[in-house]
Amino acid sequence: MDKNSNNLAVSLFSEILTVDQLARANVVRVLPKGMELSHFSVLNHLAHAGDERTPAQLAKTFHLTRGAMTNTLGKLDWAGWVHIRPDWDDARRKLVAISPAGLAARDAALAAMTPVIAGLVDKVGAEKVRAVLPVLRELRLQLSEND
To answer: pLDDT class for 124, splitting at 50, 70, 90?
Structure first.
């Protein structure tokens, strides 16, 4: 890599990390009381999945340790947002599903987040956002291959 390529790479990732930090801060402000962004992410995933997942599957999906996912699931369970049950076929495993209360909490979070995100898209411009999405998706795919 030449110096210009290195500078481009550093600038790209500096912008991505800063955007990530600022986006998270703006979204976290509007989440329902007691909900963290990690909680929303798991609830949203379970809502889209439509069926149960093991904690290990969730940890892999979110690139977390099993311990970190267990901690998040414990908080979600305490809030009543997920149901955790033993796997009847393998007593060593547990299965996690979103509860009706979890679905309602996820929907409330999404309703609160959407105006923040939509406002940002309006300010930047839909065409610019459409133009950058394929590049961001390609970066995500390339990075996920390194896991």
So the answer is: very high
- Radius of gyration over alpha carbons of the chain, in Å? 18
Per-residue model confidence as pLDDT tens digits over 21-37: 999 999 999 999 999 99
Q: In the numeric block, which tokens belong to residue 105?
A: 């909490």
Q: 46 Cβ partners below 8 Å, 6+ apart?
A: 53, 82, 96, 97, 98, 102
Structural domains of the chain in order of their starting residue, each with its CATH number: 3-145 (1.10.10.10)
The span from the CA of 108 to the CA of 36, in Å, is 13
Which DSSP symbol is given to 29? T
pTM for the structure as a whole: 0.85
Element (H, E) at 86: strand 82-87
Answer yes or no: are the C-beta atoms of 95 and 53 closer than 8 Å: yes
d(C-alpha 86, C-alpha 90), whole Å: 8
C-alpha distances out from residue 72 to 5, 25, 42, 45, Å: 39, 19, 9, 13
Alpha-carbon distances of 123 from 22, 111, 130, rounded to whole Å: 15, 19, 13
